[in-house]
Predict the structure.
Amino acid sequence: MGAELKKLSSFWNKAFLEERPSIGLSFFRIFVAFTVGAHIIPTLLHLDDNYLHTAFREKNTSFFTPLVLALVEKSPDGFVLFMTALFYAALFLFAVGLFSQLSCILMAVGCYYFYALNSLHIGTLSYDILLVTLFLMCITNYHGDFFGLDSLRRPDPFAYRKKRPFFVQRLLQLQIASTYFYTALCKFTVDGNWFTGNPIYHLLNSVPQSVVKHFPLRNFFAASPELCKLIGIVMIFCELSLPFLLFIKRTRVFAIIAGFLFHVMLVVTLHVPTIFFFLFPPQLLLFIDPEDIVAWIEKRRAANEKNGRDKIIYDGHCVFCRGSLARLLTLDFTGKLEPVDYQPFENPSELHPKLTREICHSRMQLVTKDGKLYGGFYAFQNLTLKLPLLMPLAPLVFFPGVNLIGEKAYDLIAKNRYLFHSKAACKDNRCFR
Amino acid sequence: MLSTKTRNSFISVFVVLWLLLFHYESLRFNYLNRFFGMEFPKFKFLFPPAGWIMFYRVDAVEGTGEVYGIRGEKTEFIDPHRIFDNHWLGYDNIRRNVMVTVLHPFYAENFCAYLRRKFPDYEHFSVMQVVYPSNVLHPGKRLMKVLYGC
């Protein structure tokens, strides 16, 4: 009995309590934000049709209580506008990972509010699934550990390794696996007619304006009832087995690829909500062991270290610069940069022939592996092409004319960087000079 | 700051409750209600009303709603994409049969007010139920019935 209990406890610990890197969950956060935005924003573009007093609204009475529906119904248009603004702000903050738990909660509040106000366009079965996912995302801040601004508030070059109890990721895994399983089960039990009828055949032969898209080979399949029946049975078999294959290490990769292809097929053939394509496939990626992701990153770091890295030359006497560098190194998770403090160097030309102490003091410098030198704003501009997490900023910093403003802004901050010190002794720029 | 033991206890309780609730809601409508012959309560604010039933039953019969605008003697079909003008990425909600909702008599008054605002050029509207008995056996056959007028 004692041994059995110990076994059970060890299983439970491994399944839910064990601390593992939260990098996968942080990555998933971006897709959740995108899915929520892609699902709700189109309805917010027509507030008068969908949410204001002029709208045609449907109530989901099985999901909400009458009291909540009545309360939401009374919302004046001004409050709807306020909730719209709140939703946009929360969605943006959640996407960029700033105050990620709070922004997740506020975003979820918005999702619930608009759902209660009008379920006609956003209320689908898959939206209910999205809300389950959102609920699990709201209960912790683990998804803000990486791939977001929260990780820059507490800079740590090894943030990608940060370990957290695994239960959130495990519950998200169980959620999608169970959804596949129960979906398949309903297709051939209770009122499901996938064994007794031929749903795929009927779908493919439905009227042109129905849920089925016009895809290549539709007519061929539509004329082959036996083939449709067989595909239906194979699909049920796949949906039933997928949850198990996802949890077995040896079959996991195959199951993830099969799941991906399944969702691609759904999107190509049917008018299914955004959630099927933007949420479910990334949720399948949560089955990848985060330790494997970290091991891959470590391997990349080792390879970059071995093959030589770009040198980022900074002022080690400047607390502000050290903080900025720490943020940069947090973003540089594959270790492409080697930080070098120029202060100990009497002659920084050892680092690059064109470098002097004055140049190093005036701006952060980037010396690339192939010997090119970039300073200040242009160093940052170059980094947006090198560091994957800075790449979203590349179109902005390379936009024509931005360099003129960027260079001036950079130099202004660099010149006065000692003013950013919190130390009372460093209230002017003369400190450390 | 919680100790690891306390934190793990909280997590364990949450996980157990969550898993019970998740599977209860997955089985409640289609299995528990039928097996026990009684209506089990639904947990509000989370989970779909009848479990995970995506495309679980598809028959030959199809149905939708159509709206016709009437101006003098002239009756015109109004494209549902003009009625609900939302554009999603990669799919079309009209083709997911969002129009079927307006057929419910409960929504008649609100929908009429919506149509009058959206299409002020029409004097009246007719909301029709359209049924396609089987596109395989009777291709193109439509049965239409006026459900209500505005």
